[in-house]
Design goal:
Elements (H helix, E strand, L loop, with lengths): L2 H28 L8 E5 L6 H5 L18 H6 L3 E6 L4 E6 L2 H9 L8 H5 L8 H9 L1
Parallel strand pairs: 1-2
Antiparallel strand pairs: 2-3
């Protein structure tokens, strides 16, 4: 048997193993939402990064979570003011809220809800923001 055969077998096994691990991590992350916050799907691009902002008018496609012109249609479709999604690259669960009281609770309770500090760092043009400084002091 040639070396190419072994390389192909190794590559196939490696890709299959990676696919199974990714599937299991996505499934595990999507189970964290429970019944109060329905799972709407997997997000391919991180919602608060430059690439997502650049391609926002074209990707995600129509009828996908995060579509530029979808508005609040996903909340209507799922019958909830809270929608859960999972980021493909890191299997991070993310909650999307359309309820003012829930948003107030999330923003005023820093110990209960972890903020995405990387998104806030991009806003540090004139110095550290209040959210970033508060979380930095807690750790």
């Amino acid at each position: 048997m040639s070396v190419n055969y072994y390389l192909l077998a190794f590559l196939t096994a490696w890709l299959t193993s990676g696919g199974v691990v990714k599937y299991l991590s996505l499934r595990s992350a999507s189970k964290t939402f429970g019944s109060a916050c329905p799972h709407a799907g997997v997000i391919w691009l991180h919602p608060f990064r430059v690439l997502t902002i650049v391609v926002a008018q074209w990707f995600p496609f129509k009828h996908q979570l995060g579509h530029y012109y979808a508005g609040f249609s996903f909340y209507l479709r799922h019958g909830s003011t809270c929608i859960g999604s999972v980021l493909l690259s890191g299997s991070h669960p993310t909650l999307w809220l359309a309820d003012a009281h829930a948003m107030k609770t999330v923003t005023s309770e820093p110990g209960l809800f972890q903020k995405d500090m990387e998104a806030y760092k991009a806003l540090d043009i004139y110095g550290k923001s209040g959210v970033y400084t508060r979380n930095e002091n807690e750790t």
